[in-house]
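ugh ok fine here u go
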Amino acid sequence: MAFFDSITLEKGMYANGKSLTDILEEIDPSQNYKNTDMEGLDAFQRQLKRYDIKVGGSHSDQVQKFFETSNSAALFPEYVARAVRQGMNSADSLSDIVAARTVINGLDYRSITASPLDVQNSVTAEGTFLPQTDIRTNPNLVSLKKRGRILTASYESVKYQRLDIFTVTLRQIGAYIAREQLNDAIDVILNGDGGNNPAETVTESNSLSYSSLLKLWASLQPYQLNTLIAPTALIQQLLALSEFRDSGAGLDFHGSGKMVTPLGAKLIHAPSLPSNKIIGLDKNCALEMIQSGNVLVDFDKLIDRQLDKASISCTAGFSKIFTDSSKILSL
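structure:
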């Protein structure tokens, strides 16, 4: 059994598609540290403690602390990736849209498609066949898009900057990636995933009202309306409706900042959505998210050149599962 203070760290650990944390957990499982002062730390955090690298708080170390030894330098790309993932999680709206997440090692993926469910109350008579749902492999490959940023840093920022403020910058990069992935998901809902399956449009000739939302709700049957996606102007109109100003919804919004509609659906702000459209969907069966690997960083550059220039990216795409589980309200 390897202990955390005897592991040789090298950049080759990044070359097999797994995160450094996963590799370290295989070598040095966290379960071996129950009832010790290391309990509660994962394998990566134990390595930070091994090299006395403090990444947060008022007494956090400078960025150069990672590069004092070749071993500790190998930790830096994972620190960057983890900070970016934290930013992605903090800005994550995809959990309220995506029904399933699939991680692949490659760029080619075919999802499945299912025939619409019959909403009629059909009774199967004795000796007759049950209604059939067809599941087929989608003939089109899922379009995966790489989202990310190029990270550059001067010598001074590496030498003198504290890790806590550097983490804030990395989290913002992660939040940017999450917002771009939300835009990709919205594009698939609106225009389809390449299989000629755009969302059906429900037209409302009048201005936005509570009855408009009821019309959208009714059009989704037999699916649930549990997520609404709207642009800035329409969210402002929604929140101004009298039905949104009841005491319960008001207390929740003022107390937590979470916008919940009178229909019980989660309201998601999407500035990129056309100004006259609202998307309603059932998050439990609308979209599949396909992700190629995890957050990727140029580990060679981050270890050898101490942040001269490196890319941070995440490659993902979206595919529809049940096309009719999402609808567009067009005003």
